[in-house]
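hi!! sorry for the late reply, been swamped w classes. u asked for the two structures so here they r. pasted raw, havent cleaned anything up. first the sequence of the first protein and right below it the C-alpha cells
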Amino acid sequence: MKHKHHIIPKHIGGSDDPENLVELTVEEHAEAHRKLFEEHGRWQDKIAWKMLSGQIGKEEGSREARILYMSGDKNPMRRSESMEKRKQTMKSRGIGPWNKGKTKEEHSGLQKLSEYNKLYREQGRLSNIGDFVRGTKFSEEHKNSLRESAKKVKKIFCDHCGGEFRPANFARWHGINCQKSK
C-alpha cells in the first residue's frame, strides 16, 4: 500500500502539486515524518509519525492535535498581535467590557433584564432557570422513550480507569484529566 507524502508539508505551506508529492509505503511515510519532526520539531510531524507508525490511534492523534493547536502560535485567538488588533478594533468602535465600571442602574441591558424579572415574577412565570420543567410530570411513554434513546448513545471507555462515558462528557470532564493516567 502506498501513501502520498508532501515533500514540503501542507502545515508549512506545501501544495498538492505533483512535484511536491512522492509515493511511500506506510513505514517509509512514518519514517519521513519522524525525520521531519527530529529536524524541525513541528508537532504536526510528530503526530503524523506516531499515527502512521501505530503508536497512537486516530482519536488520540486528533485530540492531541487539537490541544497542541489551541496552545500554539498558529491559533489566531492566541497570537498576541491578533489579540492586540481585536482590542484596538473594539476600542475604536467604542466597545468595551459590557459591565466596565457600570452599576445595574447605569447599564440599559441590565435594567431591561431587571424589568423582565419583575414582570415575570408578578405574572407567576419564570423566577429561575429550570422552573419551566420543575414539577412537570412526564408520561410513562415519554420516560421510556428517553431511556431507550439514552441506551443508543455511543459510549467511550477510558483506557486508564475503564470508566464508561458519553463522548461530550468524556472530552469535557474526563479525557486527558483521568486521575489514573498520572
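now the second protein. again sequence first, C-alpha cells right under
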Amino acid sequence: MFAAGFDRYLRGAFRALSREARAGMNLFYGKARCGTCHSGTFQTDQSFHAIALPQVGPGKGDNQDGYADGHDDFGRERVTGLPVDRFRFRTPALRNIALTAPYGHTGAYNTLEAIVRHYIDPANALRQYATDQAVLPARPDLDALDFVVQNDFGRVEAIAQANEALPVELSDREVRDLLAFLHALTDPAALDLRAEVPRKVPSGLPVWD
C-alpha cells in the first residue's frame, strides 16, 4: 500500500524520508514557521491569512478606494464584510502538493520553488513579482484584464501592507530541503489515478469519450 513518505516516517519507517527531507521537515516545523498555519493532518489550519500573494485575473468585482473597475479581490472580506479580513485567503492543504500547480489562490506561481521563495519575504516578493511566470489559459478576451491590479503600484502596495507573514531568512540549501519535504507529502499512488475511474456512473452517461 502506497503512502506519502511523511506518513510512512510517522509510522516508524524513518528511512522513508531522505536526509534533505528530514532537514526540510525540521525547517517546516521550526525556523521557516510553515507549520504555524500548515498544521494538522492535512497541513492546514483551515483559517484565513493575508500573505501578499499577487493578484492575477480580472478580479471578483471588488474595488479598492479610488477605483470602480471591479478588478480587485478582497478575499475573506467578501464573506464576512469585515475590512480586517481584506486580502485574507484560506490556508491550502499540502497533501499531494507537488502535483497541484499552479500555486496561490490565483495560481500566480507555476512552481513549488517559486511559492516557497515567496514566503521568504512576502511583501517584497509581491512588489517584485514577474508577471511572465504566470501560466494562464489562452483567453484573448481576458488578456488585458489579467494584471490590472498587479500593474498598479497603489493597489499592490495595499495588498503588501495587509501582509501578516513575517519574513524569514532561508538559504538556497534550506529552500531545497523544504522542497524535499514538500515532495514527501505526495503519495506516489496519486501519480496514476486510472484505477480510480469508475466503470459506470449513476447518470448512465459514458465515462470515456
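hope this helps!! also noticed smth abt the second:
The longest strand covers residues 48-49.
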